[in-house]
Specification:
This protein is of the alpha+beta class. The chain has eight helices and ten strands. About 45% of the residues lie in helices and about 25% in strands.
């Protein structure tokens, strides 16, 4: 019957498409029977083993991997076959040797009569992802050490709510521990008269979370009410896996006090110079008059 032939042809086409997809995939696909022998493995899977497809077929994991690694793999295989449910895991030992890491999913399969026939699996190479995560952790740790040791104030906030303050910020703001600042709204740390400057974008719209892209001078309010004069700037940072904003501030209170003292000294010097000049101008005529009177 032509209808049956059409269905069979469609099934053959579907099979070939699926086979082509598996054969060309960069992931490792494999099928094992109940004895743990490989009945199928795609080229990528064989390549990860450093073998050809024909060299893997018919072998068990004990013939492909080291003793310890093979035992770990076969233990997970037994768990899948006995439990009858798929399992996804990242092997503590690399299923495919060398330095690669894989995310592996295994599930039982049945023959056309519904009888358990073995298991199928797919392993996705996550080596690059794992290394990227490790680099990110190292980078975060290095960044945190840098921030902890910085003499400048560093306050990290999310949407205006403080989530971290380095030791310099804790001391400068009159606190004993970082917990006293955690959860505080960023604008509460700014002198009231400066809050509008901190929270205004060039558009003029109020936004407490707008980044301060240019260095600005503001007063930061300590817990005891005293004001710390500071130069501040903000930037986006990744903090503990989340996007946040870091407020960097440099305490310039002493510099401003010294500048004020120098300015006062300059004014006093100017007054002294003016007084000396006036005295000189007055003294000249007096000297002339006294001389002629004598």
């Amino acid at each position: 019957c032509w209808e049956i032939e059409a269905v069979e042809e469609e099934l053959r086409e579907s099979y070939h498409r699926l086979r082509s997809l598996v054969e060309r995939s960069l992931d490792a696909f494999f099928v094992k029977d109940l004895d743990g022998r490989y009945q199928f493995i795609n080229p990528s899977g064989a390549a990860y083993l450093g073998m050809r497809v024909e060299e893997v077929l018919g072998k068990t994991d004990a013939e492909v991997f080291s003793e310890d690694t093979a035992e770990d793999i076969m233990r997970m295989d037994r768990k899948v076959l006995e439990g009858g449910e798929p399992i996804t895991y990242q092997p503590t030992r690399d299923d495919f040797g060398d330095s690669r890491a894989f995310l592996t999913t295994k599930y039982p399969f049945h023959d056309r009569f519904g009888k358990l026939a073995g298991l199928m699996g797919v392993s996705h190479d996550v080596t690059a992802w794992i290394k990227a995560q490790e680099r990110a952790r190292h980078s975060d740790a290095s960044f945190r050490r840098l921030v902890e040791a910085s003499p400048d104030l560093v306050v990290v906030h999310e949407g205006g709510s403080v989530v971290y303050a380095n030791p310099s910020a804790v001391v400068a703001l009159g606190c004993e521990t970082m917990d006293e600042l955690e959860g505080t709204h960023l604008l509460d740390l700014v002198r009231p008269t400066d809050r509008e400057m901190v929270s205004m974008e060039e558009t003029g719209e109020f936004s407490p979370t707008t980044l301060i892209s240019r260095v600005q001078e503001v007063g930061l309010t300590r817990r005891d009410g005293e004001v710390v004069q500071a130069e501040i700037v903000e930037l986006d940072v990744h903090w503990e896996g989340m996007l946040a904003q870091a407020l960097l501030a440099r305490d310039i209170t002493e510099r401003r006090q010294l500048e004020a003292q120098l300015a006062q000294a300059d004014r006093l010097a100017s007054v002294g110079t003016l007084a000396a000049g006036v005295a000189h101008e007055i003294n000249n005529p007096l000297t002339y008059v006294i001389h002629h009177l004598q």
